[in-house]
Amino acid sequence: MPRPDNRQHDQLRQIDFIVDVAPHAAGSVLIAFGNTRVICAATIQEDVPRWMKVQNVKGGWLTAEYSMLPYSTLDRKERESSRGKPDGRSTEIQRLIGRSLRAVIDLEKLGSRTLNIDCDVLQADGGTRTASITGACVAAAIACNRLLEKGKITRQPLKKKVAAVSAGIVKGETLLDLCYVEDAAADVDCNVVLTEDGDFVEIQGSGEEATFTQPQLDSMLEVSRKGIRELCALQEQIIQAAMRPASGGQLQNLANFFAKK
User: Could you give the strand order of the β-sheet that contains 15-19, starting from the edge strand earlier in sequence?
Assistant: First the structure.
């Protein structure tokens, strides 16, 4: 069955990164999984939540927020601030992002500070949570590297990279990195979060008015492992490039980024 963008069944969409798109953040990246685009930014707060002080918990903390901008979908999405609270989906996703990053960050090495991760969806075409996790890891890595450069910490808190990708069963075929059209047609949808060495952080899988077999689950995990290996290799390239002296031209980079889409 041909895919909408003619990819192979185990092929990622085109993945692009632009770093430092949010100048006031300690680390930031605009990440694209095909036509899904998310800004992930990491900011440092020189304090920890009150509950840590009360319970005398040592080290730092990491927390995440996720939101979809009103124009990220075909029909305008009402701002969560207008409703007075985030919807259930946003709450679930930001908790997933936080769990995924805390699994790979040594909070004691972070020191008595909070690493805030903000993921804002500019455009949604499937896989916004997986793009957010993958981009958030890059933003957090850049922020931690800059803390090291400034001498605010002495040891790298990021133990390993983490990335996420979707997989699904569409008309009986296992597909990697579903776009919206594929996601809407999927009998089974699965989001997989893995570290760079292949350890599981989380698996979210469900049948959409359907059941799935052990072999189908195994096939989704197999293509997900392949995709995450590729994503972690890309993350490493971007993290290393971000630590080199900036060449400028970020506005032009952004213009080129959106033009080629």
Answer: 15-19, 27-33, 36-45, 114-123, 61-68
